[in-house]
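Q: Could you fold this chain for me?
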Amino acid sequence: MKRKVILVTDGDTVARKAVEKAAKNIEGRCISKSAGNPTPIEGSKIAGLIETAKYDPVVIMLDDVGNPGTGEGELALDTLLSSPNLEVLGIVAVASNTEGVEGIKVNFSIDRNGNVVNKAVDKDGNVTEDEILYGDTVDIINQYSIPLIVGIGDIGKMKGKDDCKKGSPILTKALQEILNRSELWDEKEG
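A: Sure. Below is the predicted structure, expressed as structure tokens.
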């Protein structure tokens, strides 16, 4: 049976705390070893850690440390997206101020106030006029068919709106929205 994962395109110290908190909030498992700026371990090692997680969904962090090219986070992301043993429920695509990136079309975003919006957001979680989210670790996603891509500002931050001390409410909502729209949630509820 394929392991069910949610991928998050951020992994710095603040993001790690936010992802750990949000994963706990949705009763998921966070692979903290995937955190780093940039991603410190290869995708194949992350996949191995996913296999040992006690239960699903497993939340993974991937980060390119602002690299507009294909950095460590995107290389690991590519490995995970092509793994036959994983079912990606969705991706939380994190906006950044990185220039020279293609960006990714989001299905919807969670803005800094926790609203579901049909546009992309910027790094501060403000709604933009576009459906394309610009981030340093998202371009590789365009090569895959992903069931759900949720845009979000800089996790754990957004001018304090997603602070871990507040329970990382914006990221938690993004993860919960992915679960609400996935078969995994239906199985838990049914």
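A (continued): The chain has one domain: 3-189.
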